[in-house]
């Protein structure tokens, strides 16, 4: 009888387990999707690290509720000095931000010309082994990148990075899984042209993990040999089957790619030239080849909001960088000093992914239920999502707090809760007095006391009676 | 042994339960989503009522199959005389229709100027308590609204309403959950700037229901005090924690907002002025601030179809109101007399949500299988969805039947089954004779007898031999 | 005790079964959708055949993993000589390709005029039975179609086909379920104006299969009689309830629709005339009525790539046919000779659905993991999906291999792995030497040996040392 009882309890357990599963389904958005029912947010750190010979790729778990709700995934690339991130492409649009260091970057856009040539008398033929030294290279555009650069990449476009500095080159990227630019499911999928990933796509579920190989590896070597008109041995080398260096490899010796002079002076003429060479006959607009896809957000002289004592904020949207219209993403760069506060605000038409590049801040986030779903410190290297409509306030708690926000709209709009352009300013006094049951006198303070638009001191006196003169 | 048997039956029950669950999953669109496999539609009434001090909000269950298929949610706002619907915003685009009454409406659009000032010498500073009477207010645009007004609202934009009439002000709103304007999940989420919802978001699933508070409530009071430069006590008052009035509150005394003169004469000059003040530096186009977002559909002189004996139909699409292109919604207003019929038609590229504002009608709806999935009466206050491709015919059964249809496309196209611009008219006679196995003579009647385009009498003689002269 | 043990084992089975179900859910994309985790592709054949009096409709199972991932469904229409595919419309945008034969096609676009009239003195009234012979027809545009024609159809627009040739007319169509043009769920749903489908919508799940009837069948006959102003008997005939001919019926005698002269000379004047008659007052742009929606991809003189010894490739995107921008689809037609190879490539921003119209080819497809997920023969009548980012190489293995690819982007971009405009050409030599651990000499061969852009011989010598002169 004891056994029967235990069986009974076993079956009951089963029932409970099943019930639990069904309940979880409801919560997890199976019955009716509700992945944005977020009662708690967390500062997120990477969940997977892919190690390579000369760096590592750190991947955030895009199944984390706040990232699922936001429809994005996120990764950080740490490329050591002399490290080369080998060309790969994604099924999604991508927006990247150079958090540290400097380097070179190249993208290969289908059908565009090799506009970088190291000699005007370039002849792409060999005339025997003895004359090999006369050979010159030609390839598509190579750009210098440096801290603050924000780089838009369309799906299916191969991109590589090289760290030609002394410090690690750190790049963070957001991948828009929810946009129709991604025509696969809601998973980020890198496709490797070279290199590999011995650990496999650990961020995917339901696939038995195998090492991830490059594309050539999947074709028969004789196909590669025929397609590239090379011998079978070289074709097999392209498959890199014995290679375990990962996707960031160390370059020995000089990295002799053709590159423009360092910035300060944009090479305008070369860009124009590209335009003329553009179209190669596969349905691309001429302008794609010369479209600018990079801008720097770290130049305070171009800031949208700048207050010497408090900090600055710069935004990059599709008015600045038209390709963003196409990839449906935009970015904001912020840098504030100790005790500066970014006035409370919400994103009207976008989700935001905030990544801390330096320092730390105290952040509060409020959801649709009026609950504080985050109240804590975020520090360098952490990420937090701020879903559409959720209000957020940021106060620097270190000497300098610097961050980048990626937004899932080419023209993300914010609404502020306080300040000269805030929602309270736009409301009639009567709405405020009746809504909050306060006197007209109090309502006037609520509405007019703060004259700044975006940044203010957070350590001021706790009580104000009069409006102050606007600072910015 | 009896126990063992009962255990067996229990386990079998469990298995059946589990099987039933799996089967339901199939039906409910879990395995492969098929939420539009609709074999029966129903005239829907609100499932939740949120009571407030001066009115109530009635919410339809957006999980009802026909609303899930249509990708929208729906609510009705009943605001009593002197009632103020406090400012709130949504994660979705919204299209509203004023079904009854009149009032005032304000929206606060991020970054736009306070163009309503009650004196040209406005000085936003106080010069001591004694001079308070010289103080003037300034705020964003306030509009008169009245029955028939159709109002587009973008996500994240706070909106308020005030009933300055004697009768209840009734507004119905559709929320587009399926558009990419909504970047959260497929649930409508109001965010309250002021006011609250003591009953909680009862339309959400999987969240333990808590009273819904305003946004200020979620921040620490010291954060609010610092952001608004007010004292802590006022900050706490903004959190409204003791307030149980809901989101529609009663205004005691006059509601002295600055407002334009009543319509008849549109205040063109003010609108122009707004345009010039527009941009305030947060990435908005100047035109957003002055973009028209309201139009009235109750003026028969502007009707698209007008027949004195039968009624009229007016549509509002993005050619009339360009902001609709952005929010991907449009509207149709209809008003027909007893026994008038709207000729059978289908929506080519949109789902439609039909809400009855007055009277009643007999409606038949036919799905993709050729089955009649609705055949019944719809009466004032009821709603029915007409999914893309489903054909519908409406016949007034009361003295006057009036309705509004919200469509999930900025330029919804209809195709009629009968009439001068119908699909049958566009088909060659041979297709009709062969398709329906009827004689050329019958085919000609089918094709040419009805000369109206949209509205006809439904009580005419049952047999016609000849085409009649077109009426409209 | 034996029974108790068996019970235990039974319960364990249950647990395993449940576990299996949960695991399958993970795989099938329930927990987190991952329908594009494709480790194996297959050449697909139709899963359902709907037989009609004068032809048949063959439907592919759109739940097949590769089609679910691609977000499309697919069907083949085989219309016998004198067969008429009766007018029906879909909830999705559709792109069709005429694989064999020739015929007539008509679409009825809402609100557009009947621009085809068989006499300029047309009077749409009858003047008594005796004069009926003077009656003329008028209807919307009728077009000749022939092998190679690619036809765009918007949702909700009724379309018919007639085979006026001697051979079967074969049309294949892709339906874009994932685009927002489809506002229902991800199932293709035909709506029949005439005809029927006695077998029911066998491709749908979770609905008890019933014969599918035409739209008129769903309305009450008295409604139809009143709407069309016909007698009840004719109304009942429109419901076709006794009809079992299916949706492709045989036309006895001549099919006397008004049609333009056969092509060679496009009837430019008539098209212009349509433009002027366009708008009929239901919110359509004038241009919709005269918008071209058909182009022929079988004319080698208009090919994008043409090599007499190898074959040709033609693309049709929204630059060629602007309506494609609206329906978010494009097409590619290929025709290659024995042993010609289409150089390996991937789709940057689209999924592709490849359908073989003639001959056979050896195809290899490589996924994001670098695995070969397809390596086999595809033959006439088969279909295979090539998801975004997956690389593919095609080699003809019959005298001539001809195919059509439908792509889920109005301007699908490809990237090639080999050839003069390939990604390898765009990469600096240093990236290639470091990425593949090959010598600069080998890297130059890899980069420069193949001078063709798209097509090459696949039977050339296995080893090449020098680049050859470009052929195309």
TrEMBL record, chains A, B, C:
Residues 1-23 form the signal peptide. Residues 266-276 have a biased composition (Basic and acidic residues). CDD domains: cupin_11S_legumin_C, cupin_11S_legumin_N. The keyword Signal applies. GO terms for molecular function: nutrient reservoir activity. Pfam families: Cupin_1. Residues 259-285 are annotated as: Disordered. One of its GO terms (biological process) is cellular response to abscisic acid stimulus. Residues 41-236, 295-444 form the Cupin type-1 domain. Seed storage protein. PANTHER family: 12S SEED STORAGE PROTEIN CRA1 (PTHR31189:SF30), OS03G0336100 PROTEIN-RELATED (PTHR31189). Belongs to the 11S seed storage protein (globulins) family. This is Cupin type-1 domain-containing protein.
């Amino acid at each position: 009888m004891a056994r029967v009882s235990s069986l009974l309890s076993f079956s009951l357990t089963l029932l409970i387990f099943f019930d639990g599963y069904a309940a979880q389904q409801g919560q997890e958005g199976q019955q009716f999707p509700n992945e944005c029912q977020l009662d708690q947010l967390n500062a997120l750190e990477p969940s997977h690290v892919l190690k390579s010979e000369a760096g590592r790729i750190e991947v955030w778990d895009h199944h984390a509720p706040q990232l699922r709700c936001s429809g994005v995934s996120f990764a950080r690339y740490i490329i050591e000095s002399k490290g080369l991130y080998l060309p790969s492409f994604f099924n999604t649009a991508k927006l990247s931000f150079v958090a540290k260091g400097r380097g070179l970057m190249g993208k290969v856009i289908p059908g565009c010309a090799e506009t970088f040539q190291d000699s005007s008398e370039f002849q792409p033929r060999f005339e025997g082994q003895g004359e090999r030294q006369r050979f010159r290279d030609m390839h598509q555009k190579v750009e210098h990148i440096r801290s603050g650069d924000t780089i838009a990449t369309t799906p299916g476009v191969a991109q590589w990075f090289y760290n030609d500095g002394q410090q690690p080159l750190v790049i963070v990227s957001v991948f828009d899984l929810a946009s129709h630019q991604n025509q696969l499911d809601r998973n980020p999928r890198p496709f490797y042209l070279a290199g590999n990933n011995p650990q496999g796509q650990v961020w995917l579920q339901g696939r038995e993990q195998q090492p991830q190989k490059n594309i050539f590896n999947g074709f028969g070597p004789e196909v590669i040999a025929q397609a590239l008109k090379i011998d079978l041995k070289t074709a097999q080398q392209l498959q890199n089957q014995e290679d375990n260096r990962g996707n960031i490899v160390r370059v020995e010796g000089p990295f002799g790619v053709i590159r423009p002079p360092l910035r300060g002076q944009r090479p305008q003429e070369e860009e124009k030239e590209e335009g003329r060479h553009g179209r190669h006959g596969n349905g691309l607009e001429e302008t794609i080849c010369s479209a600018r896809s990079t801008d720097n957000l770290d130049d305070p002289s171009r800031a949208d909001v700048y207050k010497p004592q408090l900090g600055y904020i710069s935004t990059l949207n599709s008015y600045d960088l038209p390709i963003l219209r196409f990839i449906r993403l935009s970015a904001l760069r912020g840098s504030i000093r100790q005790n500066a506060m970014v006035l409370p605000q919400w994103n009207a038409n976008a989700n935001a992914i905030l990544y801390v590049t330096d320092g730390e801040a105290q952040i509060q986030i409020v959801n649709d239920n009026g609950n504080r779903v985050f109240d804590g410190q975020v520090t360098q290297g952490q990420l937090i999502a701020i879903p559409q409509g959720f209000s957020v306030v940021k106060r620097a708690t270190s000497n300098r707090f610097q961050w980048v926000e990626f937004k899932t709209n080419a023209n993300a709009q914010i609404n502020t809760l306080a300040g000269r352009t805030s929602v309270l300013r736009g409301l009639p006094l009567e709405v405020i007095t009746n809504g909050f049951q306060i006197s007209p006198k109090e309502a006037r303070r609520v509405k007019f006391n703060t004259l700044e638009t975006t940044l203010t001191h957070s350590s001021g006196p706790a009580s104000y009676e009069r409006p102050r003169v606007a600072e910015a």
